[in-house]
Design a protein that fits this description.
The structure is a single chain. The chain is of the alpha/beta class. The strands form three sheets. The protein has a seven-stranded parallel beta sheet with strand order 3-2-1-4-5-6-10, sandwiched between helices. Helix 2 packs parallel to helix 4, helix 4 runs parallel beside helix 5 and helix 6 runs parallel beside helix 8. It is built from twelve helices and twelve strands. Bound molecules: nicotinamide-adenine-dinucleotide (NAD) and 2'deoxy-thymidine-5'-diphospho-alpha-D-glucose (DAU). The site of nicotinamide-adenine-dinucleotide has 30 residues, from helix 1, helix 4, strand 5 and strand 7.
Length: 340
């Protein structure tokens, strides 16, 4: 029997990597194709345990390169696309917006064109709550799927542009799509430039932890395994053309998050250093995921359990993040501290 072919873009990154592992484990009847160009954020060592699995295939390719993408689609005739590949870090988008437009906008358009030409049964576009802009600190307000898009950073503007393209390809050409908009993820293999893994690695190395501004900005944290389960559900049950928000009501200020990590590791809060604020720093994100819950999704992790397990994972997988920090990423950190 021919296996259903699922193309996962960005499967060497944080969330895409967890999703590839999840799908290979959950669906032996599917063939999973991980397409990734391996930027600084892509790393295949996380897939060592599945690299010889007959249901797993890796393709090194750039989503922006349409000729390569269309040739691949024509050869493999994918049934489904789950599109994670992106430039994902807001700070990098502030210092270098161009690559965000290229990858996130043009790359998405190249994939959509290939999906339109060759035909797929579903194109799941993994987007972000940041496309909605920011909320104030009123705890009764949330982003719903009807909240107008008002992106503030070059990153979120590029993601919103890609969301619009996905919706346009559905409306104009009938490409079957879903868009998911998830809040901040955390968990294994989170790249150590982002707040949670950066804090864990720095605290373990007794290094200063930079908090932007006053540390009162709020993010709504979701364990990456809960996000993977949400995408699985949307992939199989999502109504054609619909957008689904993903989030688990775990709002925390950045200072609370950093203090939780420091206290769990039994270190001193004196490691915290307040630095200049991120330009255009969004104050608060908070997701209303009622629509997805009605489809049958429910998060499993609360933040306290999830963060404790994540800290443990970083303790047990030091070699993974140490090899990242010691390499090119270290140079990036030096550039970044000049900017701060
Ligand atoms: P990440 O930066 O960890 O991984 C991105 C992956 O995409 C990397 O493996 C990279 O090599 C690959 N990639 C980048 N440019 C590419 C290109 N031109 N061609 C092929 N591959 C390319 O990102 P992440 O945090 O795992 O985010 C994955 C997706 O989820 C993104 O689309 C992001 O916008 C979205 N998202 C992230 C979060 C979060 O909290 N991290 C929350 C909501 C949505
Ligand atoms: O909301 C979903 C988004 O979450 C995703 O779309 C993005 O891809 C992902 O990177 C993440 O964006 P954020 O900007 O919210 O994540 P980051 O970890 O970079 O920052 C989280 C908060 O912590 C934010 O308010 C900025 C702050 N921060 C971050 C860093 C790296 C600090 O105070 N100090 C830091 O050193």
């Amino acid at each position: 029997m021919t296996k259903k072919k699922i193309l996962v873009t960005g499967g060497a990154g944080f969330i895409g990597g967890n999703f590839v592992q999840y799908m290979v484990g959950e669906y032996p009847e599917y063939a999973i194709y991980n397409l990734d160009v391996l930027t600084y954020a892509g790393d295949l060592t996380k897939h060592r345990d599945i690299e010889k699995n007959e249901n797993y295939h890796f393709v090194k390719a750039d989503i922006v390169d349409y000729d390569v993408i269309i040739a691949l689609f024509e050869k493999e005739k994918f049934d489904v696309v789950v599109h994670f590949a992106a430039e994902s870090h807001v700070d990098r988008s502030i210092t270098n917006p161009g690559v965000f437009v290229s990858t996130n906008v043009l790359g998405t358009q190249a994939l959509l064109d290939a999906a339109r030409q060759v035909g797929v049964t579903k194109f799941v576009h993994v987007s972000t709550d940041e496309v909605y802009g920011e909320l104030d600190f009123d705890p009764t307000t949330f982003f719903t799927e009807d909240t107008p898009l008002q992106p503030n950073s070059p990153y979120s503007a590029s993601k919103a542009s890609s969301d619009f393209l996905v919706q346009a390809y559905h409306h104009t050409y009938g490409v079957p799509i879903n868009i998911t908009r998830c809040s901040n993820n955390y968990g294994p293999y989170h790249f150590p430039e982002k707040l949670i893994p950066l804090t864990i690695s720095r605290v373990l190395n007794e290094e200063k932890v930079p908090i932007y501004g006053d540390g009162q900005n709020i993010r709504d944290w979701l364990h990456v395994f809960d996000h993977c389960a949400a995408i699985d559900l949307v992939l199989h049950e999502g109504v054609n053309g619909e957008v689904y928000n993903v989030g688990g009501h775990n709002e925390r200020t950045n200072l609370e998050v950093v203090n939780t990590i420091i206290n769990t590791l039994g270190k001193s809060e004196e490691l915290i250093t307040f630095v200049a604020d991120r330009l255009g720093h969004d104050r608060r994100y908070a997701i209303d995921a009622t629509k997805l819950e009605k489809l049958g999704w429910k998060p499993i992790y609360n933040f306290e359990t999830g963060i404790a397990q994540t800290i443990q994972w970083y303790l047990e997988n030091k070699e993974w993040w140490e090899q990242i920090i010691s390499g090119e990423y270290r140079n990036y950190l030096e550039v970044k501290s000049t900017y701060l």
